[in-house]
Specification:
Layout (H helix, E strand, L loop, with lengths): L1 E2 L11 H4 L36 H12 L18 E7 L5 H16 L3 E3 L7 E6 L1 H7 L3 E7 L4 H7 L16 E6 L4 H16 L24 H10 L10 H15 L16 H11 L5 H17 L5 H14 L4 H16 L5 H17 L3 H8 L3 H6 L3 H17 L3 H19 L2 H12 L10
Parallel strand pairs: 2-3, 2-4, 4-6
Antiparallel strand pairs: 1-5, 5-6
Length: 457
């Protein structure tokens, strides 16, 4: 299940209103771009980075992913599809769904070696139903999208949601599943749902906050299946495994499976595995949860940061608490927010495999530099992160970084290059944010950071 987070990971809203940079008094009309002629862009060949951890650690992750649910409940046996997998789309799919699904199924075949294909009629092993966000919210209020066993439609899930057939803990093999995704979200959010929910439909059911390099993590940092994720899926369908095996039986054969599929993992030294206690998870989920009062969310984010400190964590989970605190504080106390962002960056810089996490933090620190008129600092932060966002296929993040880059170029007086970068960002923004009004709102939000664009007060 992909959670619907209140905090937008790439939002920079709030910084412009809090700056003390002197403002011009002359009434003006904000600049616009000819973005109506910019078509939506799409990513080229996937560039997943191979898993960069020891096979011993990956084996521990594999077992935690397959033998627990997100609630922490243990699963008694391993399950997967034992036949070639068929996928069918129903409901009201928007135009972007089919090319993204075709690309995803191709990756699963080519990178994970899974026998999976789409059909257009008849019963399928996995039915992807495109429904409205409102319908998803009525079914599961915390979810952006989700997957359920032994159903093929949302109406069937509503009818049978309290029956044993939809209970993952009772599942002994996988034959029929329903995936429910929002047709009225941005193309990127819909694609992200396809990646996570289809991967969980055929593979692991759990999410682990300790994973820095996976979509199987409710921090929603990674939005498309990574090299680690594809390795987990490939191991899931290794011939040595079958549905019904116990945790001990799977653990006994995993070293040989991973040694064959990931020989480079033998060369990495194992690292201590630190579990993520429910206390921290609940604090994070409260901080990010929709419909929660601001003060409660702020206190929960602060609690997650204090818990991580008390437990001596120094990884991306320690950074995440500070990132959340910075996001919540930036409108009311931008200086304190920046201190949290810088603290988050310090922990990320000492944690391997967190380049994408750093790119998210950079949208905040570079935006602040722009409000101060420090274009050189903003550009120095932004430019190394552009290829990171591109490799990660995160159009919302990429377009945000490019819009920030354009404002920094404006501050340096390079209006022509700024205009070119801004126009180039629009195609990515169309994919990342969706509608024209959402793209315009993002552009205006970022343009307002520039002290040259803001009106007096």
């Amino acid at each position: 299940m992909r959670l619907a987070h209140t905090l937008s990971l790439v939002s920079v809203l709030g910084l412009a209103a809090c700056s003390t940079v002197p403002l011009e008094d002359t009434p003006t009309r904000a600049q616009t771009t000819e973005f109506s002629v910019q078509p939506m862009k799409s990513f080229g060949s996937p560039q997943p980075q191979p898993a960069q951890r020891s096979n011993g650690n990956i084996a521990a992750d594999f077992l935690s992913l397959h033998f627990q649910l997100e609630s922490g409940r243990e699963l008694p046996v391993f399950t997967r599809f034992e036949t070639p997998i068929t996928v069918r789309v129903t409901g009201s799919p928007p135009p972007s769904l089919q090319p993204d699904l075709t690309r995803l199924l191709g990756r699963m075949r080519n990178e994970a070696g899974i026998d999976i294909r789409q059909i257009t009629a008849g019963a399928a092993n996995i039915t992807i139903e495109a429904v409205s966000r409102e319908e998803i919210g009525r079914a599961l209020p915390q979810a952006a999208c989700f997957v359920v066993p032994n159903v093929s439609s949302l109406s069937e899930f509503r009818r049978d949601r309290r029956k044993d057939k939809t209970n993952w803990g009772s599942l002994r093999n996988r034959e029929r599943l329903g995936v429910f995704v929002p047709y009225d979200s941005s193309p990127q959010e819909l694609r992200d749902c396809l990646h996570e929910e289809l991967a969980q439909a055929i593979g692991p059911l759990n999410d682990l906050y300790r994973l820095p390099d996976s979509v199987f993590n409710d921090d929603n940092i990674h939005t498309v299946l990574t090299g680690f994720d594809m390795l987990v899926l490939k191991a899931t369908y290794a011939p040595e495994l079958r549905s019904g095996m116990t945790r001990a039986e799977v653990a006994a054969v995993l070293p040989d499976i991973l040694g064959r599929l990931n020989p480079r993992g033998v060369t990495y030294a194992p690292q201590p595995v630190t579990a993520t206690p429910r206390e921290w998870i609940e604090a994070v989920q409260t901080a990010l949860g929709p419909g929660t009062a601001y003060q409660t969310r702020l206190e929960s984010a602060n609690r997650s940061a204090h818990l991580a400190q008390a437990w001596g964590w120094t990884d991306h989970r320690r950074a995440f608490g500070h990132y959340m605190m910075g996001r919540m504080l930036q409108s009311g106390d931008p200086q304190l927010a920046q201190r949290h962002f810088l603290t988050a960056m310090q922990y990320l810089q000492s944690t391997p495999g967190t380049e994408l996490h750093r790119a998210y933090v950079t949208t905040q620190t570079a935006a602040h530099a722009i409000t101060l008129g420090d274009a050189a600092s903003a550009l120095a932060q932004i430019r190394p992160m552009l290829p990171v966002a591109q490799r990660s296929e995160n159009a919302a993040l990429l377009s945000t970084l490019m819009m920030l880059e354009a404002e920094a170029l404006e501050l340096l007086g390079d209006a022509e290059k700024a205009r070119a970068v801004r126009l180039d960002s629009v195609g990515w923004a169309r994919y990342g944010f969706g509608s024209d009004w959402a793209v315009r709102a993002k552009m205006q939000e970022i343009a307002a950071l520039n002290p040259r664009n803001r009106l007096g007060g």
